[in-house]
Design a protein that fits this description.
alpha/beta; Rossmann fold; 6-stranded parallel beta sheet; 19 strands; globular
Length: 579
Amino acid sequence: MSNLSESTEVRPTTDGFHLVLDALKLNGIHTIYGLPGIPVTDLTRMAQAEGMRMISFRHEQNAGNAAAIAGFITAKPGVCLTVSAPGFLNGLTALSNATTNCFPMILISGSSEREIVDLQQGDYEEMDQLAIARPLCKAAYRVLHAEDIGVGIARAIRSAVSGRPGGVYLDLPAKLFAQTMDAEAGSASLIEVVDPAPRQIPAPDAVQRALGLLRGAKKPLIVLGKGAAYARADEALRTLVEKTGIPYLPMSMAKGILPDTHEQSAAAARSFVLPEADVVLLIGARLNWLLSHGKGKTWGGANAKAWGGQKFIQIDISPTEMDSNVRIDAPLVGDVGSCVSALLEGIAGQWPQPPAEWINAIAERRNKNIGKMAETLAKDPRPMNFHSALNVVRDIVRDNPAAMLVNEGANALDFTRSIVDMYQPRKRLDVGTWGVMGIGMGFAVAAAVETGQQVIAIEGDSAFGFSGMEVETICRYGLPVCIVIFNNNGVYRGTDQNLGGGSDVAPTVFVKDARYEKLIEAFGGVGVYATTPAELRTGMEQAIRSRKPTLINAIIDETAGTESGRITGLNPAASLKKK
């Protein structure tokens, strides 16, 4: 007869909350961006208890933008956590933008119970979130059982960073978090992802084809995209550029891979080199609208018949990117680092330098344009315009090259991109492929959290409005962020008129002389009202010395802006004016 007094051993258990957090930590993810609320509030508390950093925002879209750019900065998936339904929907813009820009990101959202959602019985915030997310991201998964959490997290990580990076959605129904299982079995179910983004080596014949085109080029050009910056192949890229002697043109988020002041930079001669080049090597850059789709006057124009048309070599990890707009004569499929290394092996020894005529023609136009810009920047109009204000920012960034520069707006974006030089890679963060507004404060928070460096955010007053409430987040976490708002009283400018003659202001006009700096003061930050370059310089220098959250309201001539920045042609009604 057994001894009834003997007690059965009680084995420790774990639950869905802890398995999610343990799976993330096992894979080196220690920061979550998001908002608390049903059903993830306890998950945010437990994350902090487990030693993770939970950065809580005021709006999910901004948290999602933070997670997306964290992915770009770290090359690990940035994680955004949201509540169900409305919170999930708020995060979708950032998820879709991350996918478009090839930023690795995982949007994790709590959701209502499947058995109720599928029968449409009216659960709290009922929504088939997986179905909605799937067309907008690279991959989407749902986990229903605690023992599958490890697999779900592992699949999300690998999907986010392998091949062409992008956004991934992970759906976690509320009931999942409370599920329990044996702690030892739970630990064993977790997966540490091995080699999540394996190298993709280009084919040898593809490398030789590309080298053959480059070798025969009379007017070669290298275009560096943000994919080249993400690849972290900085030294190899520098070696390729300098060994071949080929001029290069950096796209905006590729600025700094080589310093913008490098003698081979053709950035100041962009409108000359694009139509004149005969062989173009695209490295991590896509021939989308930002490069005029590789067509038209921007690319050859009237010169095309004279020399037989331009030829393109394209390095991209996605084979389907080739021929997306024009013929790619030498597709080089693989990761940027492996492809550039293969090219360097192929040009070992003596390599023919580009003809002096080509190099001298670029230098002549570059120096001419730089001289014109210097004359413009030297002017000191009252009130300030974009050039005189950005002359200050240019100096501040030059003196603080490790600072992270966040930039959005229309004119604020275009002028900053062309005026402010970058000196180190992955320091310039901007609106990217979609040109979407509202990334500013989310990007600024993540840049400060992930790097610990000073952040300078150059914002148009319109763009700032999309995420401005996150200044409270910046103050709450004491982040070293200096926000400069170029305040010209409206979208593009503050002088538009109501074409109907009514009492309402024009749709593009804001409250005149708004005191944006008061917003950050309400949360304990430093506000600065600047009407002159000297005041702007003093405010920025003090912000960098103190590393305190700072917002500078830089008053700009309200007539200085142009419609839609430099993409006026994309607005079909931009030319309509009241006669």
